[in-house]
């Protein structure tokens, strides 16, 4: 951790090939109680800056075989970079001004005065002190306002443990896997927020939202005139925007194989080139990717590079679907309800027992996102007080429908009671869902306990139902014959425990 202003000590690197200048400057700094080291070449200076963390680097503009200005982005490419002050001789002030445009804090003309040097050191210490204060306040704000991963199930606690482990390694690539709506971006943000990069940019890009050429220019940027229609000023890409921070590549499976190869080089070399550029630009960015697809199968089918898959999956994290963490549904539902109640200015006290049972027994193919939408719907339709079952949206199970227009429920001529109709309807829904109790209860609009009671009341038997013919049957009724439509094949949907 850097020294603070109160401690008054800075760690400083002097990169200058003139021994008298280098040693004289180091002597001045040490006498004032600072820690100062020297390097006589660009190579030695870069190695020292990579090896140690400095508060300030004094950098000569002209070094043997190297341009000092070109070193500035490399020195400042690390997270929490040092400030750079360039040393310039008479007549090279324009170069020093250019250096400031490239990220230098200030410049000092040779021969320099001791007061000027010490004034710059005090300025850097003040900047660092203010940065630490801002970081501390941002941390407090982040704890109060950052989106939380809500849940206490074993599955989600495993995800949080993995997040904490990988957050300690600021360069490790991460592959977050899970169905749509499970909260993969939330996991990526949690990794960023808990890492040493938390005060740096978090840039998210959906790879499915761009064509191949557009995604390439968005990621890498481009040089002026590098292609037809390119801006005359060029453009910085998202890699540059995420420098020292985190780049989240959502839906990485949608990236073309050409771009996959370029991303692989970025991960291997820790550098990149703009479109149309010739210069390798150093990169200090953590890459987090996510997908809801089977990348192993895509590798076998030649749709995803195997080498990139293993580069990304250094630390794989699987986000469980909501049906695997049902015990978290009440927590999530109340969490979302509190948010919407505050936004809408409503007094919403919670959920009735029937409403919560309805929520916990749904299949949730859209996962947490679908649950959030359902709670928002309920918050809108409920005038106030407690959310009731009738305030919840209807269940729309994909692949399981009971069409009112096409299904015909035929009653025996001797029994036209509601009870008889209920028995036939329950039997029909049970057969259509493959006797999946939770899904049948959701379609019927009742809870599981009530459905079990109805099954016992009507003495419904699954084994007998499965032996029943699915061919159309004719049922006689006074004055007419009615044909029952054939039952569709039983769906092989996953059973919900």
Protein model, in words:
With 497 residues, the protein is an alpha/beta fold. It has four domains: 126 residues, Response regulator (Rossmann fold), CATH 3.40.50.2300; 173 residues, Rossmann fold (3-Layer(aba) Sandwich); 69 residues, Helicase, Ruva Protein, domain 3 (Orthogonal Bundle), CATH 1.10.8.60; 97 residues, Arc Repressor Mutant, subunit A, CATH 1.10.10.60. The chain is built from 19 helices and 18 strands. The strands form six sheets. It has a five-stranded parallel beta sheet with strand order 2-1-3-6-7, sandwiched between helices. Strands 9-10-13-8-14 form a five-stranded parallel beta sheet. Helix 3 packs parallel to helix 4, helix 16 crosses helix 17 and helix 17 packs across helix 18. It is elongated and about 110 Å long.
Q: Biggest sheet, in brief?
A: 5 strands, parallel
Give the overall shape, derived from the CA principal axes.
Answer: elongated
Low-confidence stretches: 1-6, 398-406, 469-497
Structure class: alpha/beta
Order of strands in the sheet with most strands: 2-1-3-6-7
Number of helices: 19
How many independent structural domains? 4
Through-space gap between termini: 51 Å
**pLDDT averaged residue by residue:** 83
What is the fold named in CATH at topology level of the largest domain?
Rossmann fold
| Proportion in β-strands | 5-15%
């Amino acid at each position: 951790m850097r020294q603070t202003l109160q401690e008054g000590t800075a760690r400083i690197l002097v990169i200058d090939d003139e021994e008298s200048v280098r040693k004289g400057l180091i002597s001045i700094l040490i006498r004032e109680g600072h820690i100062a080291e020297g390097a006589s070449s660009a190579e030695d200076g870069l190695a020292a800056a990579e090896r140690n963390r400095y508060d300030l680097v004094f950098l000569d503009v002209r070094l043997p075989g190297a341009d000092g200005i070109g070193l500035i982005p490399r020195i400042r490419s690390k997270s929490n970079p040092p400030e750079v002050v360039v040393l310039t001789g008479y007549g090279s002030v324009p170069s020093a001004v250019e250096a400031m445009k490239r990220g230098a804090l200030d410049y000092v003309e040779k021969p320099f005065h001791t007061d000027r040097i010490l004034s710059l050191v005090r300025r850097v210490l003040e900047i660092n002190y203010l940065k630490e204060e801002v970081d501390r306040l941002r941390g407090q704000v982040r704890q109060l306002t950052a989106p939380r991963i809500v849940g206490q199930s074993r599955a989600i606690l495993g995800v949080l443990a993995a997040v904490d482990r990988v957050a300690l390694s600021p360069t490790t690539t991460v592959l977050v896997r899970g169905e749509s709506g499970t909260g993969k971006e939330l996991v990526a943000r949690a990794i960023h927020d808990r890492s040493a990069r938390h005060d740096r940019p978090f840039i998210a890009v959906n790879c499915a939202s761009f064509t191949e050429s557009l995604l390439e220019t968005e990621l890498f940027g481009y040089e002026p005139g590098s292609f037809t229609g390119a801006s005359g000023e060029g453009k910085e890409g998202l890699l540059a925007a995420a420098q020292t921070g985190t780049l989240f590549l959502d839906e990485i499976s949608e990236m073309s194989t050409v771009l996959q190869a370029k991303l692989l080089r970025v991960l291997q070399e820790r550098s990149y080139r703009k479109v149309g550029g010739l210069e390798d630009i150093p990169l200090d960015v953590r890459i987090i990717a996510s997908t809801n697809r089977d990348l192993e199968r895509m590798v076998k089918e030649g749709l995803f590079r195997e080498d990139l898959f293993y580069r990304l999956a250094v630390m794989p994290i699987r986000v469980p679907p909501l049906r695997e963490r049902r015990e978290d549904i009440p927590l999530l539902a109340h969490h979302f309800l509190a948010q919407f109640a505050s936004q809408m200015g409503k007094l919403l006290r919670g959920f009735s027992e029937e409403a919560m049972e309805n929520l916990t027994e749904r299949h949730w193919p859209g996962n947490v996102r679908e649950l959030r939408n359902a709670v928002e719907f309920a918050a809108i339709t409920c005038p106030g007080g407690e959310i009731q079952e009738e305030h919840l949206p209807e269940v729309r199970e994909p692949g399981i429908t009971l069409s009112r227009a096409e299904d015909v429920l035929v009653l025996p001529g001797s029994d036209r009671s509601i009870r008889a109709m209920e028995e036939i309807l329950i039997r029909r829904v049970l057969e259509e869902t493959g006797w999946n109790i939770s899904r049948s209860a959701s379609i019927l609009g009742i809870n599981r306990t009530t459905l079990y009671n109805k099954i016992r009341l009507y003495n419904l038997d699954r084994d007998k139902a499965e032996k029943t013919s699915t061919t159309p049957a004719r049922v006689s009724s006074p004055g007419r014959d009615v044909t029952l439509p054939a039952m569709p094949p039983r769906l092989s949907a996953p059973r919900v425990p």
